[in-house]
Amino acid sequence: MSTTAPKGVALITGASTGIGAVYADRLAKRGYDLILVARNEQRLNAAADRLRRETGVQVTPLIADLNEKAGLAKVEAVIRNDPSITMLVNNAGVGSVASILQADVDTMEAMINLNVTALTRLTYAAAPAFVSRGAGTIINISSVVGIAVENLNGVYSASKSYVLSFGHSLQKDLADTGVRIQTVLPGATATEFWDVAGYAPQKTSDITMSAENMVDAALVGLDIGELVTIPGLHEAEVWAGWELARREMSAKFQNPKPAPRYHLA
Q1: Cβ distance 96 to 158 under 8 Å?
Q2: Is the pTM of this model over 0.85?
């Protein structure tokens, strides 16, 4: 794909609705052409048509089910082979509010495949391509339940903890390469996520943020250089303290003997 957009092309997964659709709108207005990935062809084409009409950018719909190997491989190939791509937004995901005694394990496996495996494979496709050019941005959408893990379904929370941990490792591995990694942790956001997860009333709760506000805040976080952006956390020092404590504790793990509390001779 050729493009004349000043900032290149942003590839966004889960781009036909919700957070992904808002990212598409905002990035188009920032000067990016777009590759929009989703599995619902009708909604994706409608979103692409609207963005072309409203912003004038080039928009390429890419129909793919990231839970299927062939669909995922198709998107990986595009990322590897299209040098105009300068940004990857790993937004596609699914959630649940069901406990382990209520949830179907096959559904949970499909969640892991989308939230973890697809995000990982697309990141592995993008990172070497971006490093070879000395520039690029990867935005991975995690969730506050990656920290507040008891709040929703355990597999969903664990998948979002993975995204946060993966982001920390990427930031270490790709330091000084010119590639930026941002991990975004939305709180409750008013999207179809809650319909799919089985708790539609959350969309209208007084603690639920609009998708527009969430994305706008996340992009400001990107602009100011945040590695981790939590739009709903007003007390930035709380996150800074959490990170400091985590890193200080990490330095204390390297001991050849068990701790005295275990009372081993």
Answers
A1: no
A2: yes
Residue 179 contacts residue 138 (beta carbons within 8 Å): yes
Cα–Cα distance measured from residue 8 to residue 84, given in angstroms and rounded to the nearest whole number: 5
How large is the angle between the packed helices 211-223 and 18-29, nearest 10 degrees? 50
Give 128's Cβ-side CA count (13 Å radius): 9
- Give the per-residue pLDDT at 97: 87
Sequence ranges of the domains in the chain: 9-234
CATH class, domain 9-234, is: alpha beta
Q: Which sequence positions are flagged as catalytic?
A: 156
d(CA 90, CA 142): 9
- Check pLDDT > 50 for residue 64: yes
Tell me the average pLDDT across 123-147: 97
Q: Quick one: DSSP state of residue 17?
A: S
- 204's tokens: 């209208």
